[in-house]
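can u pls check wat happens w/ adenosine monophosphate
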Amino acid sequence: MRILIIGSGGREHALAWKIAQSPRLEKLFVAPGNAGTSQVAVNVAIDGEDFEGIRTFVLEEKIQLVLVGPEAPLVAGISDFFAADPELRTIPVIGPSTRGAMLEGSKDFAKEFMKEFDIPTAASATFIGYNIEEAYDYLARMKPPYVLKADGLAAGKGVVILEDVEAARAELTRMLDGKFGKASEKVVIEEYLNGIELSVFVLTDGKNYVMLPEAKDYKRIGEGDTGLNTGGMGAVSPVPFADKAFLKKVEDRIVRPTIRGLATEKIDYRGFIFVGLMNVNGEPYVIEYNVRMGDPESEAVIPRIKNDFVDLLQATAEGRLSDIEMDIDPRTVTTVMLVSGGYPEAYEKGKVIHGTDRLDRALAFHAGTRETNGQIQTSGGRVLAVSAYGRTREEALSASYAELAKIRFDGMYFRKDIGFDL
Ligand code: AMP
Ligand code: GLY
């Protein structure tokens, strides 16, 4: 099979690494990819939102399946674009239709969906600018902390949590006044959930689904979960508090009703669902849906999947996921992200990376790297994800940390406490 992956981060390198192991693969391309994906696939310099460019390439190279990594091309409608084109229509895209992508692209849509299908989530209400007095009243009736969410995609910055009601009113006003542009024309005000977070991953063909390993990620830049939010500084899979009983609740109360909801609403959905959850005293609540795999969660989750990945993708495309039996590695995988100094604020690019070829007990998934003049250089805030297996979490972490010590680049930073809370 000839496959094209869209994206350029650590998630896409992990997907490419896994797909490249399949005997059913004929040729693998990544658009645009990075210096890691080029070790296992062919990079093509096309942006994921350049649908015409992708169309030309897919037809020229006789691509038989497209796997979309990030949310932006999905929210922009890549699946609908393929479905509407007579020459592309028969080429499956793994990634939902535009309506399906609204589960991530609109918090209000996701909340309405969860209410409709009785999926446990924080109580909430959505407001638009001309309802600001009602929004103030709603805030006044809530208890702190106050959770405000821009309805649309806001580069991971659209959720603001505030302790003080005056500060929350001021922030709400700024958001409805266009702080995040169109993304905050609507704002969801939500009840605060007190618990511990984890992420559950599902692959669905729209009717059937398989559960993938769960993971916990570490979003803050600083040790002890302090400082600014990032795209994710590390991940651990499995998650010890997500025992059989808890995961059964997740499957019964959240995953199955979600799939049923997609079918009832006739939403065309072949792809991954990433359910961000809060465990509140042993009960799962949905914080958010994403319509893709997580990053860096993928770098911990995908190495634990033993199934042939091309098989999984083909079964998804053909609506045959009910035939698939998942085979999951019982070992733990821990991922530690190496980032550029200054990230998630301003940072420099173009630093030469040394040592990625010296790892023998860990995998180095490239997130923000490029190859220039035969050298591997940094090209993003998150640079490399170092993933290692262990019989225990301690063993995996000690391998991740011992191996990442072989890597260096100017300004390299990482959290030394991944997994500290488990
Ligand atoms: P999101 O962009 O929806 O993932 O939200 C960003 C972060 O805000 C989440 O990862 C949580 O840590 C936090 N968060 C979102 N909603 C809530 C909530 N209702 N209660 C507590 N924390 C929340
Ligand atoms: N690590 C969080 C995300 O992929 O959204």
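DSSP finds twelve helices and 22 strands in the chain.
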